[in-house]
Amino acid sequence: MSKFKYILFDLDGTLIESGKGIMNAVKYALKKYGIDETNKAVLRSFVGPPLNQQFAKCYGFSAEKSLEAVLVFREYYETKGILENEMYTGIDKVLQQLKNQGKYLMVATSKPEKFAHNILAQHDLEKYFDFIGGSLTDGSRITKIQVLDYVLKTNKIENTDEVLMIGDTKFDILGAKNFDLKSMAVTYGYGTEKELMEAKPDFTAGSPEEILWVIK
């Protein structure tokens, strides 16, 4: 699989175990609307996809109310939640080995780009990446497809056969398919194995180390 020159990584659930901070921020936001959410499965569903979409899907919030809820979410996340995360064990070694192979490593996340830089810096991971692409807080670039379009165009990547997208949710896999990219689903993250398999990734990895079994 040495044909892969560009390796695109999702952030939450792929590089970083960030669920605690995100879920705490979601609970904080919901309490502003009189909702005391205790269902962990529902809270986990907010890790990965655009937050405004999840507020609408899970609680029937209008588009306007969903965007407002995201702002409340950030009241907690920007000061506390952003620090409530851990690097998946072995990710730094995987990234180092890929860099040693001459791969171009990039991040493509629906998390706001400024938060992505902050979190990667917390774990000294920024140094491995040639480009870090994320969403914008004004909502103009928010979905995985929009982020991938931004990453590919900004880096002038035209040969999609050279690109592999790695992520833990169906949004990563379906986003890759939208651009005819090969995809790898990591099953140690926040997406369910059922949803990942239904999205039909080209490859799967059950641990960070298994990523290297495909990219040689």
Can you describe this structure in just a few lines?
By secondary structure, this protein is α/β, with parallel strands linked by helices. It has helices at 19-31, 40-44, 51-59, 63-77, 91-100, 113-122, 144-154, 170-178, 193-199, 208-214, and strands spanning 6-9, 16-17, 86-87, 104-112, 131-135, 163-167, 182-186, 203-205. It has ten helices and eight strands.
SSE ordering: EEHHHHEHEHEHEHEHEH
Category by helix and strand content: alpha/beta
Q: Which stretches are low in confidence, meaning pLDDT under 50 for 5 or more residues running?
A: none
Shape descriptor: globular
Largest sheet: 6 strands, parallel
Strand content: 15-25%
Strand runs, count? 8
| Mean of pLDDT | 95
**Biggest sheet, strands in spatial order?**
5-4-1-6-7-8
Give the termini distance in whole angstroms: 6 Å
Q: Give the count of helical stretches.
A: 10
The helical percent reads: 40-55%
Rg: 17 Å
Any overview of this molecule?
This protein has 216 residues and is an alpha/beta fold. It has helices spanning 19-31, 40-44, 51-59, 63-77, 91-100, 113-122, 144-154, 170-178, 193-199, 208-214; strands at residues 6-9, 16-17, 86-87, 104-112, 131-135, 163-167, 182-186, 203-205. Helix 1 crosses helix 4, helix 3 crosses helix 4 and helix 5 (91-100) packs parallel to helix 10 (208-214). The chain is globular and about 50 Å long.
Per-chain topology:
Blueprint: E1 6-9, E2 16-17, H1 19-31, H2 40-44, H3 51-59, H4 63-77, E3 86-87, H5 91-100, E4 104-112, H6 113-122, E5 131-135, H7 144-154, E6 163-167, H8 170-178, E7 182-186, H9 193-199, E8 203-205, H10 208-214
Parallel strand pairs: 1-4, 1-6, 4-5, 6-7, 7-8
Antiparallel strand pairs: 2-3
